[in-house]
């Protein structure tokens, strides 16, 4: 448990998880994968989403599935990529929607740590992946861990905006209490479903909700 290098407030809220059998098995699996294969993100970035956005600072949660599986792409934040990496199609569509919704042009840098440090938890359901093998670390235990994260936020925090894009994220968010949070639902920003993503104005709705609860809005650039 002491070896888990995750931000202190998250460690405190997740202490019980680190003693569970699924976590012990997951830790062994992930360690072996890093020793024998090319795995993303780099080990230091596995918990980057939490390190940049402490538990009590979370204003928004954006749920992704698993990390990008190409060189230099995954950086520990859902939908984000390394700062010098070309924007993936889903992120391009997110930026297009921000421009259409808010009338601002996001920076071309796809790292998105600028959002995370403002209180946007960019949470992938699965936190690691083998190179060029999408969903290769699915059903190994990460989903249980990230379910516990959403459960902790739902039980101990309120007035959080959850952006659930696509069926996968929506199922993961079924535990969220709609009466004390804002849950925004649309299609996934992937080119395959972007027509169901565009036009939902999630970013303006998010900021309007935050302002209405006297919470500083997010600069989505």
TrEMBL record:
Domain called Uracil-DNA glycosylase-like: residue spans: 51-210
Catalytic reaction annotation: Hydrolyzes single-stranded DNA or mismatched double-stranded DNA and polynucleotides, releasing free uracil
Record has Transport as a keyword: no
EC numbers for this chain: 3.2.2.27
NCBIfam families: PRK05254.1-1 (NF003588), PRK05254.1-2 (NF003589), PRK05254.1-4 (NF003591), PRK05254.1-5 (NF003592), ung (TIGR00628)
Role this protein plays: Excises uracil residues from the DNA which can arise as a result of misincorporation of dUMP residues by DNA polymerase or due to deamination of cytosine.
Protein name as annotated: Uracil-DNA glycosylase
